[in-house]
Amino acid sequence: MGNAKSGALSKEVLEDLKTSTRYSEEELCRWYESFQRQCPDGRISRAEFEKIYGTFFPNSDPQGYARHVFRSFDTNDDGTLDFREYIIALHLTSSGKTHLKLEWAFSLFDVDRNGEVSKSEVLEIITAIFKMIPAEEQKLLPEDENNPQKRADKLWAYFNKGENGAHPKHPGIAPKTNPKKTPKNLPKLTQKTSQKIPNP
C-alpha cells in the first residue's frame, strides 16, 4: 500500500510489485498517481468496483460476476482493493504467467475459500457469467452449453468428475467429505498469498 498522506508509493510495495509483475518502476509510479486520483483514500470498495465493472456491460447484469471477481481480488478479505491488489490483478490478467492465471481462476471458482471447488460453486460462477451474455447471443450457443446448468455439467465432465466428486471410472474413490459442506471435487491448486490476486 502507498502512503495516502504523502501520495507516495512506499518503497516496500514498489519493490514487491517490481519483483512480482512485469512493470517498471516508472510505470508503477504512473499507475499509482492515476490510482490515487481515482481513489484518493487508496482503496476501491466492492460497490465502486461493481459500478466500474458495470460500465463495461451496459446491456447486461454483471453485478453477480463482479462480486465474485472482487472477492477473488480482495486477498486480505478487508472489503476493499488496495493499489497492490489492483496492480497484481492487472498484471495477472493482461500478461501474467499461465499458472498464475489458473490460480486466479481457481480462486474465482472457490467461492467459500476452502481450497477446493464443488460443482455447485462452478454452477454459481457460470450462472453469474450467463447474466452478462445478452439473450440473443445465448441463443447462438451450442445446444450442449446454452444454459448455465448445461455449461457447468460440461465443464465438470471435462475434469472427469462424477456428481459427488468421485471419479466416474472409480466410483468407490471419492474425496473426503464434510457433512456441513458440499463435497469439493476439483484438484487443489497451491496458491501463495502474494500470487492470489486477480483481475478487474
From TrEMBL:
Residues 140-200 are annotated as: Disordered. Residues 140-154 have a biased composition (Basic and acidic residues). GO terms for molecular function: calcium ion binding. SMART domains: EFh. Residues 184-193 have a biased composition (Low complexity). Residues 61-96, 97-132 form the EF-hand domain. Pfam families: EF-hand_5 (PF13202). Keywords: Calcium, Lipoprotein, Metal-binding, Myristate, Repeat. Belongs to the recoverin family. This is VISI protein. It comes from Molothrus ater (Brown-headed cowbird). The lineage of its organism: Eukaryota, Metazoa, Chordata, Craniata, Vertebrata.
